[in-house]
Amino acid sequence: MTAYDALMQFQRETEALGQIAGRLGWDQETMMPEGATPQRAEEHGAMANILHARRIDPRVGEWLAKAEPADDVAAANLRHIGRSFERTAKVPAAIAAELAKTTSLAHRIWAQSRADEDVASFLPILQKVVDLRKEEAAAVAGDADPYDALLDDYEPGATGASLGAMFDALRPRLVALRAAILDRPAPAQLSGSFDEAAQLKLSEKLALAFGYNTNHGRIDKAVHPFSSGSGLDVRITTRTNPTDPFNCFYSTIHEVGHAAYEQGIDPQHLLTPLGAGVSMGVHESQSRIYENQLGRSRAFTGWLYGQMRDAFGDFGIADEDAFYATVNRVSDGFIRTEADEVQYNLHVLLRFDLERALIAGDLAVNDLEAAWNDRFKADFGYAVDRPSNGVLQDVHWSEGLFGYFPTYTLGNVYAGCLHTALRDAVPGLDADLARGDTSAATGWLRENLQQFGGLRTPIDTITHATGTKPSEGPLLDYLEDKFSSIYGL
Asked: Which class of enzymes does this protein belong to (predicted)?
């Protein structure tokens, strides 16, 4: 057995254990009894200890030193394993285990604090999470920016400075478009009540329409929708609201985009570093192009209009054109996950700036709610009415996911680039979408991006699929064209 073969055999076991750890998290969100929280925290900590020990096992360093890549796949595997080995070796095992235990507890405390509209009850555990992540970041970064060390977990190669420059380029045109739209009459809103069982039934139909393979997955409900797993077991969740079926439908399509990426990876990469999405930004590009450029297109919403009439009868929207405008209605709102395409990224930029300040030590945890509320009022022009619509709305910080938020906007940027290339490659796309047939679009994405998993770096993954390096221009052009048409700008 060569050094590479021995390394990959060891790595497959590590990847399998990582999948088991992920399943613990899925269960905690969907099935776990409330009283199991303390034990689950211990279980998470134990798994984190095991995985940390494997990732810094001295044999990994020896195998890496001796392994010779025979092809691009082997070279990519070695790149991923080497990066993980070097990074993990810098983080003391005690910090990794304590983070796993603390974030498991923090998640449940956050959920209760959110339900109780009680920020104060969440702040002590959040302080502990922030402190631990700052310790971890300092260990990894050395003399570099600690926030970049955290960001690198989710988007290898990105920096706070590079993303800040991109976001600064996005902001003026987004703000101008938002202002122009809100100065125009708004399309009709949905009204009435929509049976939640019927919502879930139609959401499953949507999942299948976008290519989700339920033989290797399942759909459950969660407070905050998410996708979990890779390879042969990729699960998604959604949520329902009796007065807002779009929340259910587009949460489902969004999570299917994530799941389709994982399910579309070449099976030869199963339980290897290449067998998962290469970054959260690239991952988000798939969920956002499924949800927005495809799922909210005029062609697809025409088909969805018929499906909703079949499911709910006459629900007060006159025709397909009016329905398209309703689906894409731009309106005031507090919740990032429910925001329209125009305003969504403004929600992300708020979080990006606040969490950078937290990690830098420029913002105290006890001042976070006030800072959030002040920034929201400045960006959106109205005040946050309650914590669940403000600083407590997202699960991410309770789970220690600092550096994750900016990948949402980066994913939108990538999706804009992919959509331009997709339209060039599939000229008959709208005719397919009008029949509820997404196969040409999802097939193009699988062929040009999804199948490769982690083979390339994030930037090279998008460049390979589109033929050009990613930039914010295509996303802004798409948004301005689409919403100028809807709102008569």
From this structure: hydrolase
